[in-house]
């Protein structure tokens, strides 16, 4: 029985057009990326390749940058895979002009141009401004935790790190002794493979020790600052405010200050009583009643002091500060599903889901990032040529603090409760109108604004403005873990991730697609 099939002849001499211009349709993302790189300033990338004729010629940085942009837009970051795609994928072959840079060259390009890649974020943002996509009328700020290229279980104390350093140094001395006895043992100037890896690990261990020293210093400053604040309050005769410290030694300091404050008040009352007694005695009269005795507040302060002393004596040794020996700059971060070793990636996004500013922080708490992110938006918008000022800033409850609510700057709506609790509270308490009541606290004023019709409608934009950006980067593109290590390297990688987001919006806009719904 005969079949009528399209003939597939694998021995045919020419299957593809001679010119790469005919390999892809005109509206393909690869051509768009090539046009984008042609439009932006890439002089910083070329500056590392002086035209002195010395050494092997480098690949054109514009071509390499195009490959990097396209790969991140496609969610591909593995240099070995990109190398293979330059052989097999038509779009990659168009981008690389049929050249095939190897994976080591691709990786070195990323490392060597770390700062230039970060700076190219503004160049892409300028194109978004020109396309009308980078308005900052409404900005939503949020953070997401992204895992580091390091395991959670390699966080190590200073003592353990010193042990590892001593072992590595012993290995170095052993190798040096072997080389002295047998000069021909190592034919080149390079260290043996296992020792070369030890040298790299030694550098990371030293960085981890530096991080531990910085963290210990920060903790000491925090304890001293809290104690100084409590002492100032005691000297002014005020009650020591704030939450009770959980750490036994800090709690003991707090209990001592509260006891001293109570005793000072008792002595003042006793002194007044003695003066009044002397005055009456001079007039031939006698005092009735007893001298002031400790009141219930002082008695409770005495009980707390005794308990605090007991807790401090019985408390186990304070846990030593630890650092990650694989990526010392990373931190343990809490997420909805547990703890990860990673970084807190911040993004400020407009209504078109274009990232106006991004940042990487080692702090797990978002509340400390509100004001820096607003400043970053203002700086990025000015650098990119966006002339309209920020109209409104939206942020979830992770950014709530009285300082953030009352700081100078644009109008803001910061949730005081998690979103589902905020909606429940709004249903139970009902809506509000107008301005907050005179004398309202910062939290009361913010909750009032959030429950007005205008505030409810404006805050509702937050979740579908910034959260889809994180969803696209982490779920669609697979950017759930950084590939490089170190704070500066991670900042560069986050810049590339946010560039990929903005390039996607620009590409959709060039095809007439509404960027806010893709």
Description:
It is a single chain. By secondary structure, this protein is of the alpha/beta class. Among the domains are: 20-112, no CATH class; 126-150 and 329-517. The chain is built from 18 helices and eight strands. Strands 1, 4, 5, 6, 7 and 8 form a six-stranded mixed β-sheet that branches. Strands 2-3 form a two-stranded antiparallel ribbon. A hairpin with a 2-residue loop joins strand 4 and strand 5. Helix 1 packs across helix 3 (61-73), helix 3 crosses helix 18 (487-510) and helix 9 packs parallel to helix 10.
SSE inventory with pairings:
Blueprint: H1 29-39, H2 43-46, H3 61-73, H4 79-88, H5 90-95, H6 103-112, H7 114-130, E1 138-147, E2 155-157, H8 158-181, H9 193-235, H10 248-282, H11 296-314, E3 322-324, E4 331-335, E5 338-350, E6 355-361, H12 370-384, E7 392-395, H13 402-406, E8 412-414, H14 419-429, H15 442-451, H16 453-459, H17 463-476, H18 487-510
Parallel strand pairs: 1-7, 7-8
Antiparallel strand pairs: 1-5, 2-3, 4-5, 5-6
Helix pairs in contact: 1-3, 3-18, 4-6, 7-12, 7-18, 8-9, 9-10, 10-11
- Helical residues, percent: 40-55%
Biggest beta-sheet profile:
6 strands, mixed
How many individual β-strands? 8
Helices and strands, in order, run as HHHHHHHEEHHHHEEEEHEHEHHHHH
Radius of gyration: 32 Å
Oligomer: single chain
- List low-confidence stretches: 185-195
Number of helices: 18
Summing up helix and strand content along with how strands pair, one would put the structural category as alpha/beta
Shape: elongated
Measured by DSSP, the beta-strand proportion falls in: 5-15%
Distance between the termini: 49 Å
Overall residue-averaged pLDDT value: 82
């Amino acid at each position: 029985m005969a079949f009528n099939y399209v003939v597939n002849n694998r021995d045919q001499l020419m299957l593809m057009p001679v010119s790469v211009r005919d390999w892809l349709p005109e509206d393909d993302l690869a051509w768009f990326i090539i046009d984008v790189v042609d439009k932006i300033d890439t002089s910083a990338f070329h500056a590392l390749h002086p035209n002195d004729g010395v050494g092997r010629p480098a690949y054109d940085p514009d071509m390499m940058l195009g490959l990097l942009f396209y790969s991140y837009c496609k969610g591909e970051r593995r240099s070995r895979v990109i190398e293979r795609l330059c052989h097999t994928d038509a779009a990659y072959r168009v981008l690389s002009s049929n050249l095939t840079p190897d994976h080591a060259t691709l990786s070195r390009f990323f490392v060597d141009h770390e700062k230039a890649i970060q700076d190219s974020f503004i160049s892409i943002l300028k194109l978004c401004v020109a396309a009308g996509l980078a308005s900052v009328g409404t900005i939503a700020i949020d953070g997401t935790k992204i895992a580091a290229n390091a395991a959670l279980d390699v966080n190590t104390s200073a003592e353990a790190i010193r042990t590892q350093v001593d072992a590595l140094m012993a290995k170095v001395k052993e190798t040096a002794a072997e080389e002295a006895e047998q000069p021909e043992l190592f034919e080149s100037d390079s260290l043996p493979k296992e020792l070369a890896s030890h040298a790299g690990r030694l550098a990371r261990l030293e960085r981890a020790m530096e991080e531990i020293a910085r963290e210990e210093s920060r903790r000491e400053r925090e304890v001293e600052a809290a104690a100084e604040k409590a002492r100032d309050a005691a000297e002014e005769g005020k009650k020591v405010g704030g939450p009770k410290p959980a750490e036994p030694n800090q709690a003991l300091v707090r209990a001592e200050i509260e006891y001293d404050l109570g005793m000072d008040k008792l002595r003042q009352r006793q002194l007044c009583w003695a003066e009044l007694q002397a005055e009456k005695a001079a007039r031939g009269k006698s005092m009735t009643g007893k001298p002031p005795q400790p009141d219930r507040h002082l008695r409770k302060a005495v009980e707390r002091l005794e308990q605090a002393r007991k807790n401090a004596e019985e408390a186990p040794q304070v846990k030593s500060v630890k650092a990650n020996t694989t990526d010392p700059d990373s931190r343990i971060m809490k997420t909805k599903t547990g703890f990860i070793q990673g970084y807190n990636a911040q993004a400020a996004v407009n209504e078109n889901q274009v990232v106006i500013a991004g940042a990487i922080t080692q702090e797990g708490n978002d509340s400390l990032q509100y004001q820096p992110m607003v400043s970053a938006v203002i700086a990025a918008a000015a650098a990119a040529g966006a002339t309209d000022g920020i109209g409104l800033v939206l942020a979830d409850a992770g950014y709530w603090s009285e300082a953030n609510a009352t700081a100078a700057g644009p109008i803001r709506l910061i949730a005081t409760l998690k979103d589902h609790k905020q909606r429940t509270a709004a249903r139970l308490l009902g809506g509000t109108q107008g301005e907050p009541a005179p004398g309202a606290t910062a939290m009361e004023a913010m909750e009032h604004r959030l429950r007005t019709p205008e505030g409810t409608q404006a805050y509702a934009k937050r979740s579908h403005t910034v959260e889809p950006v994180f969803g696209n980067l982490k779920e669609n593109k697979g950017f759930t873990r950084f590939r490089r290590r170190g704070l500066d390297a991670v900042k560069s990688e986050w810049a590339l991730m946010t560039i990929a987001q903005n390039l996607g919006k620009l590409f959709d806009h060039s095809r007439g697609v509404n960027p806010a719904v893709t």
